[in-house]
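Researcher: Here's a chain I'd like modeled. Treat it as a single chain, no partners, no ligands.
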Amino acid sequence: MKCPACGHPEMVAKNKDETLSFGSQSLTLHTMHGEFCPVCDEGIWDAESYRRYTEAQAALLRAVKGDISAEIRRIRKSLKLTQTELAEAFGVGKVAFSRYERGETRPPAPLVKLLKLVERHPDLLAEMRGVSTQGEHPRGITSRSTRTAK
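Model: Modeled as a single isolated chain. Structure tokens:
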């Protein structure tokens, strides 16, 4: 196999330790196997080592950034709400929180911040349920689309 980085005509099979770093944390994967260039040390992992690498990378990201999916689920359960009830209170689709909790969709940052506020101040939930999201604005201001032309 030809080196994809420098074009050297041969790659050499060997085992290596690989250290992943993100933020202030790092972890080392031992005995990773692949084909490596003897000139530039560029390498290609075999299928098993690549799987280990991607799983470790995802785990490291979750550890540093926090697992927002688990956080959303924990907050929702602490509020004793179903996913549908929480979606209605936040004015999003019925399955939105299901997708957020499974990690299929990343929730918008403002939604996460508001959810954390509601966790600390559950009385806000009742207020949120009373606020319409359908074109109504406070103090009688109407949206542009509902104004009458003169």
